Amino acid sequence: MNRLIQIATLVFAILLTGCASTIKMPMKDDGDKISSSGNPVYLMSVTMGNVCRDRFQPSLDLVQVVREDGSVKQDMKFAMDSKGTYESEDDKRPPKYLVRLELAAGHYTIRGMNGSGRAFPINFTVYAPLHAPLKVEGPGVFYIGAVNATIRERQGNEFRAGQVIPLIDQAVACASTGTFDVDISDRFDEDIALFRKTFPALVAANVQKAVLPPFDRKMAQKWWEAN
Question: What digits encode the pLDDT tens for the residues 55-72?
Fold first, then answer.
């Protein structure tokens, strides 16, 4: 997707998700370092697709992480960047997004992922739920898994892949008429090799495996119905 279009759709997604400021992912610049005593960094690969309408493929814009520690509540939106967007030489394969989350100690939920896309004249936005719990403790670098989120046609009252409005755009792209199938898997060797190739700070880092639990569709459905 053209970089100008990516920027425009990212702005549109931010407007839809509220005015909260976005957070830059670590290691965006090659000179960035990882502190051995600082906040831990969590690595996750993401691919998004649409088998309901092949023409309308979403791109990852934001990863929403919610911190809930008693009275402490914080809603964070990490912005995906071009540095972590890996485009395969095979045009038939979707981009792989190399997500990096730097978090202070606490209890979190990786709530979900905002995406958007454009195929003239249609612009659409989507939200892929995760609802994955994450307990953050000491420093280090941790691999939490490979997420694949694919839009398919919605059945019955399944949660929607995107909002209903704008009516025509969302329906044509199968955002409002579709739902997400989400899979969380362990692709440690493949993913970490790509992370190390992309981010110099990870070349010599000791990456520990801490894969998220399987996607809980019932929880995602319950949250969607309540919100």
Answer: 999 999 999 999 988 777
